Amino acid sequence: MHRRIIVPGALAAAVLLLAIPASAAPHSPGAPGIGDPYYPAYGNGGYDVSHYDLRLKYQPETDELEGTATLVARTTQDLSRFNLDFLLDVDEVRVNGAKASFTTSGEHELEVTPKTPLAKGTAVTVVVRYHGVPSSKRAYGFTSWHRTPDGGVAANEPEAAAWWFPSNDHPLDKATYDVSVLVPDGTQAISNGTLQSTSSRLGWTRWNWRSNKPQATYLATLAVGKFDLTTGTTDSGIPVVNAYSKDLGDHAGAARASIERSGEIVDWLSGYFGPYPYNALGGYVPNTNTGYALETQTRPFYSPRQFANGSNVSLVVHELAHQWYGDVVSLKGWKDIWINEGFARYAQWLWSEHEGEGTAQELADYVYASHPADDPFWTVRPGDPGPDDQFDIAVYDRGALAVQALRNAIGDEAFFTILKGWPQKYAHGNASVADFRRYAEEVSGKPLAALFDTWLFQPSKPGVPAARAAAVAKAAEAVPRPKSWKRIAATNGVHEHGGRAEGAGHRH
């Protein structure tokens, strides 16, 4: 931000400054972070990416990845230098065709200095040629790359991109993607969007995927291994591609029984959230030892262990609900995680109702009653949980309870209008909890600041008056456990697996 302060004594100097041509104004480096207080070094300043073209070659036996990433971007300031978030070894960087100098700094920063400084508003093409072994790279003490017996997987939240492509790694900078991956014959490469083509030559097969709608970097995924692919079409005409590792063992049947219902679930969710926002759908289960799932855009990632006790359709509902709440509308800052997780959990409550296993109201009553006032559960504030509690179970369960409180406060007509309207109002963009509150007030015609404060921002259990107002104040002994609770709670392992220090990164 340029501030010009003019005091009377400096007026002549100011006039002189204004006479200097704009071209003489100094260019400055882009910020090494996009400005998110939870993760100050994530993302970068000075430019906005509109498209990533990733042309990769991966050798599963050695976990070696080589690639050429082409970023189509536009500068948002006069730039002398800019950063990309990236961890692999860089061979060459070109900016608008000319070789650029580069170095590394911090935990994951690639600093690029173009041959010629870039003026604000300039169209920029950045080409990065690179190679490396993703599983060998660590940042902040962990890796987000999952090595599997037959390959590797990039899927994590809030970060995974830096292990396989250079990017502006924050949801504020969404872009379209072409991902082309060369792998040995007999191996498959799975990514987001539609499978455009495959072709084989000299023992290698190239898989070409396209995501034609803006996508956050953490929602971009890559899985290479030996998969069985299934294809189909939903009732509404969306092509479905699912992929299952050939090495899932006893979990294979339950995984298929769950994920093969994706088309049915998306058509059902469309009744609540409006038309499905993408032209592709699916899910994939690689042979990882992780314990979480992730709503990677159009093709969620699932861990095999989530199907250890049988089918888990409620989990599939959760990840597919994110396609509207989290993917098509992404958070502005990581503190806005409630819009993603509270509504995806609430979709599970609606599915429970659909299956006749407990209504959303009964589930809200149960959550409220089953956590006494001194339970640490209530100290987490879903509306701004802090980076350490970003994926705490309270963000999900207390978050969904807040959604039910909102529904009871404004009535079903306004509530379901909001559920459908929100993904359309901010489609392919970003929004905050404050934006959601304003939108809910606009649609319902009611002031909601006190309700949002009570259910999302106070580090304590809402008292009986507030709970009565939200129609969730029954005594604990009067609230039976809904039949669906065990199945919904089975997805909680998704959020409780090891943290970053164990090398697994964040969880979802």
Automatic annotation (TrEMBL):
Residues 1-24 form the signal peptide. Its cofactor is Zn(2+). Keywords: Aminopeptidase, Hydrolase, Metal-binding, Metalloprotease, Protease, Signal, Zinc. It catalyses: Release of an N-terminal amino acid, Xaa-|-Yaa- from a peptide, amide or arylamide. Xaa is preferably Ala, but may be most amino acids including Pro (slow action). When a terminal hydrophobic residue is followed by a prolyl residue, the two may be released as an intact Xaa-Pro dipeptide. One of its GO terms (molecular function) is aminopeptidase activity. CDD domains: M1_APN_like (cd09603). Residues 310-455 form the Peptidase M1 membrane alanine aminopeptidase domain. It is an enzyme of class 3 (hydrolase). Its EC number is 3.4.11.2. Residues 50-219 form the Aminopeptidase N-like N-terminal domain. PANTHER family: AMINOPEPTIDASE N, PROTEASE M1 ZINC METALLOPROTEASE. Belongs to the peptidase M1 family. This is Aminopeptidase N. It comes from Streptomyces dubilierae.
